[in-house]
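ARCHIVE CARD
Drawer: 12
Card no.: 0347
Subject: one protein chain, sequence and derived structure
Cross-reference: see card 0346
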Amino acid sequence: MSSPDQADSPDLSGPRLWLDWGRRLFFSLCGLTLILFTGLVLYSVIARYFFNAPPIWGEDVPKLLFVWLTFVGAAFAGMMGMNIRVTYLVDKMTPAVRRRVEIAMHVIVCFLLVLILWYSVPIIELTSRGTMLSTGWSNALTYLALPTGAALTLVHQIWRVVKLARGGADDPPGDESTSGF
């Protein structure tokens, strides 16, 4: 017999455990990246305006972090249900029709994400030929954020399609998965 505490705790076995672990990892990485970005911008501003000695990387590195934070953060926001979700019409549908509409919606999103991944390859190839003058890093590092964010979002969308296909509900992820944060 299970205790009341166990009955209230979410099932974190198998893929659910990995998904929960991944969400916690992304949460931490986004937070650390934001702190690092803020610190680098603050350092650059102080060095420029108070000491008249701006760091040579003062624009490129924060820009790189900001782009990565944007795309990985958008993927994370989608996973956590922090994105805008208009449900007026689907709330009025029967559960069977709603499930079909939501599966179709997520499949379309998956298709668009695959297109983004496909068309980002030439961009990465073109930008990989150049380097940032301030750091010597490849320019492709900035543009790799787009396919990375798209791939993370694609994995989550596929998970949602599988969940719906198995008969689960497509509740906003924030309702079921933010517990513990």
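Annotation on reverse: Residues 15-49 form the longest helix (35 residues). The chain has eight helices and no strands.
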